[in-house]
């Protein structure tokens, strides 16, 4: 993704990007187990042009969720994904704390 924006108010950012003509997807952490880098309710906004705002995890999971967001914008169909890793492999894949999380990704209309 080209641009990275860190925003505490994802919905305001979404409204701003929509006014600028962007197509958007919103990823939300809906459930966590064990040690998770971000709590339930954390969001990542993805634009068709590659901008990101917020965070659902970090590491490779964030990149995977951004790719899922691109697909969801194309198909219009929401997706629910489970991500998790053993504590032994956690650093290797970008989940420094180990744990598991479930992320719901939807296109914003």
Characterise the protein shown here:
- The chain is an alpha+beta fold.
- The protein has one domain.
- Helices cover 28% and strands 32% of the residues.
- A six-stranded mixed sheet has the order 1-4-3-2-6-5.
- Strand 3 (43-47) and strand 4 (52-54) form a beta hairpin.
In short:
This protein has 3 helices and 6 strands.
Helix content: 25-40%
How many helix segments? 3
Mean pLDDT: 84
Spatial strand order of the main sheet:
1-4-3-2-6-5
Shape designation: globular
Query: What is the string of SSEs from the N terminus onward?
Result: EHEEEHEHE
Care to count the β-strands? 6
Tell me the number of structural domains: 1
Estimated structural class: alpha+beta
Radius of gyration: 13 Å
Strand composition percent: 25-35%
Summary tags:
single chain, 109 residues, alpha+beta, 32% strand, globular, disordered N terminus
Write the layout of secondary structure elements.
Layout: E1 4-5, H1 10-19, E2 24-33, E3 43-47, E4 52-54, H2 59-75, E5 79-84, H3 90-93, E6 100-108
Parallel strand pairs: 1-4
Antiparallel strand pairs: 2-3, 2-6, 3-4, 5-6
């Amino acid at each position: 993704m080209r641009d990275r924006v860190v925003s505490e108010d994802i919905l305001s950012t979404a409204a701003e990007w929509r006014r600028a003509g962007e197509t958007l997807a919103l990823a939300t952490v809906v459930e966590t187990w064990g040690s998770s880098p971000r709590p339930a309710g954390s969001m990542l906004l993805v634009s068709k042009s590659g901008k990101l705002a917020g965070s659902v995890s970090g590491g490779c999971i964030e990149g995977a969720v951004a790719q899922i967001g691109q697909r969801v914008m194309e198909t219009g169909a929401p997706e629910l994904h489970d991500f998790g890793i053993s504590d032994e492999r956690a650093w290797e894949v970008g989940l420094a704390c180990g744990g598991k999380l479930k992320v719901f990704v939807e296109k914003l209309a």
